[in-house]
Design brief:
Elements (H helix, E strand, L loop, with lengths): L4 H5 L12 H13 L5 E6 L3 E3 L6 E9 L4 H4 L10 H9 L1 E9 L5 H11 L4 E11 L14 E9 L7 H7 L5 H10 L4 H9 L12 H20 L8 E8 L2 E8 L4 E8 L11 E8 L12 H17 L4 E8 L10 H10 L5 E3 L2 H9 L6 H5 L14
Helix pairs in contact: 2-4, 7-8, 7-9, 8-9, 9-10, 10-11
Length: 393
């Protein structure tokens, strides 16, 4: 049995392949941040907000404050591709979560301030007075790492939020939240700002806060389903297309087949990875022809992030295809950083030129050379690649 990588390493052998230990970076970041945290802080919000889910419908929520001058990086995963753990951890360590427990439907001042910050296109300066404050950094498979937090006593917006007329018009239309979210997307807002606005509880007819974790997946799901309404009317791609990309020791192979829309995602944790506990672990989630209605519980938000990225590419190509995505997580992925990693790594893959093949067999032969896990392990779990001839591949 493979022993947990971090237990074997203990921060000194660098078994994950880096010249530093990400866990030691977390400890150092927490110590550094604890020295500058105060009970009273005057600082800009990037703009950013956070809404928790523990105790729902009464949850902790509030804006987030920058503790660094690299404001544009602190809460924008679209800029994190190519960054290593050290940079990402330091970005998040320098973003302070202001929080107060409120009911998601309550019309309280902190909620109103949070909404104004969420809608702003520019940083908003905030004066915050805290009851207590913590430098702890937390990690989640869904969310980007969460930095220090403080329970608020008093909060004052010290500058006026800059809300674009376009956004203001869309949120005042009185439509369903899903319609407004897609209108924001078509107007040029990225998925990160849309999920922030959705989380703030300003979309739709029922105005309530949405936990950040839920709003990220909901945004990916809403936009992908809207794109699919158009994609299903497009002609099929006329050959087999294959893209590859790797970031933070997550390796992706994205295969387009000239068939009607379907989507299948494999998430494979190599036995040597920190989270696999010495056993190869492969999950498969899919939708055949129609968009799925049940939650992809095996893979969670990663499924929806991947599906959105491939739908964006199909819309750009004005083509339809069946999609199979292979995600292999290797031993260097020692800390989870959130589903943005899936979304952005696949998006970046599409910036490259794809390999093109006349047959599925040729495409799989090329793909197999870059997979660490034997292709047969995927084929026997696949619903889209289950032709009998392929099982002998």
């Amino acid at each position: 049995m493979v022993v947990n990588l971090c237990l074997r390493c203990k921060g000194g052998k660098f078994l994950c392949g880096r010249n530093y230990c990400p866990l030691q970076v977390v400890k150092f970041a927490q110590k550094s941040i604890s020295r500058i945290l105060k009970k009273e802080i005057y600082s800009p919000s990037p703009p950013s907000i956070f809404v928790g889910r523990a105790g729902y419908p009464k949850v902790f929520s509030g804006p987030m404050l920058a503790l660094s001058d690299k404001i544009e990086f602190l809460d924008n995963p679209a800029l994190w591709y190519g960054k290593d753990y050290k940079e990402i951890i330091n970005f998040r360590a320098n973003l302070l979560r202001v929080k107060k427990k409120e009911h998601v439907k309550a019309a309280q001042r902190v909620k109103e301030n949070l909404q104004e910050v969420a809608l702003s296109s520019k940083p908003v300066f905030i004066e915050a007075h805290f009851k207590k404050i913590s430098s702890k950094i937390a990690f989640s498979s869904f969310l980007q790492p969460l930095g220090p937090s403080g329970e608020i006593k008093k909060l004052i917006l010290a500058s006026n939020p800059k809300i674009s007329q376009r956004v203001e018009k869309i949120i005042s239309d009185g439509l369903k939240a899903s319609e407004q979210a897609f209108m924001l997307y078509e107007s040029g807002e990225d998925v990160y700002s849309i999920s922030r606005i959705l989380s703030a509880g300003v979309l739709g007819k029922e105005k309530k806060l949405v936990p950040t974790r839920w709003s990220i997946t909901a945004t990916d799901d809403i936009i992908a389903k809207k794109l699919l309404e158009k994609i299903r009317s497009y002609p099929f791609v006329n050959e087999y297309l294959l893209w590859s990309n790797t970031h933070l020791d997550n390796h992706f192979e994205i295969l387009f087949l000239p068939r009607a829309w379907s989507f299948e995602l494999f998430e494979a944790w190599s036995a040597q990875s920190v989270w696999a506990q010495g056993k190869l672990r492969i999950t498969a989630e899919r939708e055949i022809c129609k968009a799925r209605t049940s939650y992809a519980s095996e893979q969670g938000g990663g499924y929806y992030a991947a599906r959105l990225a491939v739908c964006e590419q199909l819309e750009k190509m004005r083509r339809q295809a069946s999609i199979v995505v292979f995600r292999e997580i290797h031993e260097g992925y020692v800390l989870p950083v959130g589903v943005w990693e899936v979304r952005e790594t696949i998006r970046k893959a599409f910036e490259k030129k794809p390999e093109k093949f006349a047959s599925l067999r040729e495409a799989l032969a090329s793909l197999e050379k870059r997979l660490r896990i034997p292709l047969k392990e995927y084929l026997k779990r696949s619903a889209l690649l289950t032709q009998k001839s392929l099982l002998k591949f």
